[in-house]
Design goal:
The protein is an alpha/beta fold and 327 residues long. It contains 11 helices and 12 strands.
Length: 327
């Protein structure tokens, strides 16, 4: 059995030091990092390297779990910060270990264990987990707010000179909830081209980590040299995704990604969602809720302007964490 020290009092720890831990997957790292940086300017992001056999059982604790992420992380656990925030199943074990060493803990996404093992658990609205220490967020957490958008505009001033409306197009990919293949991309592109032919403007298109090689190739073949900006993959240089969001007059997003749609909805631009076919699970539930709230419209061949209220859940969740756990 592993023996852990009792929790230290909050006054014994540096309240400004926060860890954001994840397995390094983009969606998990972004959510944990966004909440941590909102709570503290001195947040530190740690990428976990889970080891067998503990990674198979995470977040359950097998004997020797202190070494589940290597000796360096185990050494750092001897003096954890006041608060540790994790996202994803592997991080759920790391936050449990840090909590046993005295840290306050916030776990993002359902850890598939009773939430009592953490101080707070943050889940998206479409997740059924509920409890006294469970905070419910609409969509995913992220860093997009007015200050983030202002920095992105400053980093990509060239987009500001493009003819309007500037249309940012965010492409996802296949998932267990639905498909986004070459045929879907072609259908989307036909609608985009018709809009630009009718209304003018500039297209700025970007793929994502789930965009398939076939769709990336189709994106490049159709729009290279034609659109104002095309980013298909890393060899194209730095992804100008942030600049696209910041300068967009309209945003078109494939329906398969809750993360991308959440960030698009945090801007002040009208958002349109494109789904080539039925989805299931979390993405469809989130799309439906955003349409019901009139924050999002379906992309059916036109991109009219409409009034929006930005969806800024990270700030709200951070305020609730402060209220529940103290500064």
């Amino acid at each position: 059995m592993i023996t852990y020290v009792e929790r230290a009092s909050a006054s014994d720890r540096d309240p400004g030091h926060v860890w954001a831990v994840s397995d390094g997957r983009a969606g998990n790292a972004r959510q944990a990092g966004a909440l941590a940086h909102w709570l503290s300017p001195r947040a530190e992001e740690l990428q976990l390297t889970p080891r067998a056999p503990w990674r198979w059982a995470s977040p359950h604790q097998l004997p020797g779990a202190r070494l589940a992420f290597g000796h360096e992380f185990a050494a750092r656990l001897s003096t954890p910060p006041a608060l540790v925030i994790g996202c994803g199943r592997q991080a759920a074990l790391a936050t449990r270990l840090a909590g046993a060493r005295g840290a306050r803990t916030v776990q993002i996404l359902d850890p598939r264990m009773p939430p009592r093992h953490w101080d707070l658990v943050v889940v998206p609205e479409h997740d059924m987990l509920r409890g006294e220490n469970v905070l419910v967020a609409r969509g995913s957490l992220h860093p997009v707010d007015d200050a983030w958008l202002a920095r992105a505009r400053a980093a990509y001033p060239q987009f500001g000179a493009l003819p309007g409306p500037r249309i940012a197009v965010l492409l996802g990919g296949d998932s267990r909830h639905g498909r986004f293949d070459v045929a879907a991309f072609a259908a989307l592109a036909d609608r985009l081209d018709a809009c630009v032919a009718h209304d003018g403007g500039s297209l700025l298109l970007t793929g994502s980590r789930r965009t398939s090689p076939a769709v990336r190739a189709a994106l490049r073949a159709r729009y290279a040299g034609r659109a104002a900006c095309v980013w298909a993959e890393a060899r194209d240089g730095e992804n100008p995704y942030a600049g696209m969001l910041a300068w967009a007059d309209r945003i078109v997003c494939s329906a398969d990604s809750v993360n991308m749609l959440s960030e698009a909805c945090a801007t002040r631009a009208p958002v349109f969602v494109f789904a080539p076919g039925p989805l299931d699970g979390a993405p469809q539930q989130f799309v439906d809720s955003m349409i019901a709230d009139r924050r999002v419209r379906r992309f059916e061949g036109a991109l009219p302007a409409f009034d929006v209220v930005p969806l800024r859940e990270t700030a709200r969740v951070a305020a609730e964490v402060r209220a529940r756990l103290g500064d």
